[in-house]
Amino acid sequence: MSGARNRRGMAGARMRPQPSSQQRWWQAAWAKVRAGFTWTKAFVVGGVTLLATAAAIPGVLPWLHDHGRDLVGEEPLTVEGEAKPDLLAGVYWATDEVITAPADWDVFERISSSGAQMGTSGHVVKLHSNRSARIVIEGLTAVVEQRREPLSGTAYVADPQGGDMEALLVDIPLDRGGGEVPALVRRDGGEPRPYGTDGRIRYIEQGVAERLLVKASTETCHCTWRLRIDYSYRGEQGRLVVPPRGQPAFETTAWSRHKVEYDMHSAEDRVPRRHDCVRDPHSCRREP
């Protein structure tokens, strides 16, 4: 009897169908999707909580913002420079080329393309902060790459028209040093002093443009040079040069006895006049 009952029980028990391999694959995939939703939800909730907490603590969000830029390798400070001779000095340029063509406005293009600013050169350096934290300018130094004989071909002279008095004026006396020349600053009409020696350090904040008006001078050389900027940010030290490596350096050449000079500073009608500085040296300027 017991054997019969067991057979009937086995016969009456229904076997559950086993899922196919394709169904098992879908079930496993769906389990992974649900787990992904769970982790995504946890990540979103955690991120929102972190941002809310950071927003409630002063200085945390700016720190996170700056640290994220540090991680991707973005420079805290970027700079750019260009020659602007008419801002501080006059448009004084010289070349080794001897130009004998009649005086006209194209002469300056020829001289400036192959020559250098003469006697006193003017440059504008623009500083841009890429961080919310303050960036402190620790030092300004001219790094001289070459010292050669002054250019002595043709010169072009025009007096200055004015400058930007709100920017920091930086003097580079190229004849006072060798390979490195500390920059000087002149404040409140006083004598030029090395940058930082008076305790007044320049700093840069994000969203506020900073400009340096750089005036280099020489009586002895045709110098090529770059401005080195040392700075600090959140306890870290950094250094940049302008113009950056790979671009032409700044150039300044001394005044010399030029064979022909195009001089427009005394022309009331603003028409260029040509002077022969060798035959008639008194007709030409010898300094800025």
Description of the molecule:
Strand 9 and strand 10 (193-194) form a beta hairpin. This protein has 5 helices and 17 strands. By secondary structure, the protein is of the alpha+beta class. Residues 1-21 are annotated as: Disordered.
Enumerate the spans where pLDDT stays under 50 for 5 or more consecutive residues. 5-14
Order of helices and strands: HHHEHEHEEEEEEEEEEEEEEE
If helices are DSSP runs of H or I spanning 4 or more residues, what is the number of helices?
Answer: 5
Q: Termini separation (Å)? A: 129 Å
The major β-sheet equals: 11 strands, mixed
- Rg, nearest Å: 35 Å
**Helix coverage percent of residues?**
25-40%
Question: Which key phrases capture this entry?
Answer:
alpha+beta, eleven-stranded mixed sheet, 25% helix
Q: Which helices and strands occur, and which strands form pairs?
A:
Elements: H1 2-12, H2 21-56, H3 60-71, E1 77-83, H4 85-88, E2 93-95, H5 106-114, E3 116-118, E4 120-129, E5 135-148, E6 154-157, E7 168-173, E8 180-182, E9 184-185, E10 193-194, E11 203-204, E12 210-217, E13 222-233, E14 236-242, E15 250-253, E16 260-263, E17 273-275
Parallel strand pairs: 3-15, 6-16, 7-12
Antiparallel strand pairs: 1-4, 2-3, 2-6, 4-12, 5-8, 5-11, 5-13, 7-9, 9-10, 13-14, 13-15, 16-17
